[in-house]
């Protein structure tokens, strides 16, 4: 009687294990000195080791998102005409 219950628990554990991934997400909100959001800011993230880059722009809420990044060290450049460029 205990065996069927144990098998079900083991099967459910296996499904949970497959759901784990090795990826990260970087996101942020770009604002000016007064706290107002800035739309259309160009954002570029570069993997320092591989020099592979991805770009995006901030949305209407000033938010940028870089999903599904491999764990690594990255350089983030945020720039828009009329503003100082930020490098992190």
Overview of the molecule:
The protein is an alpha+beta fold. Helices cover 19% and strands 36% of the residues. It has a four-stranded antiparallel β-sheet, with no helix packed on it. A hairpin with a 5-residue loop joins strand 2 and strand 3 (53-57). The chain starts with a helix and ends with a strand.
Summary tags:
two-stranded antiparallel sheet; 1 helix; disordered N terminus
Summed up, what is this model?
With 88 residues, the chain is α+β, with helices and mostly antiparallel strands.
Principal-axis shape: globular
Count of separate DSSP helical elements: 1
> What level of helicity do the residues show?
10-25%
Q: Span from first to last CA?
A: 59 Å
- Beta-strand fraction estimate: 35-45%
Series of H and E elements: HEEEEEE
Radius of gyration: 20 Å
Uncertain segments: 1-17
Note the main sheet. Answer: 4 strands, antiparallel
Q: Tell me the number of strands.
A: 6
Report strand order across the widest sheet.
3-2-5-6
**SSE-based structural type:** alpha+beta
Mean pLDDT: 83
Topology:
Elements: H1 2-18, E1 24-29, E2 42-47, E3 53-57, E4 63-69, E5 74-79, E6 86-87
Antiparallel strand pairs: 1-4, 2-3, 2-5, 5-6
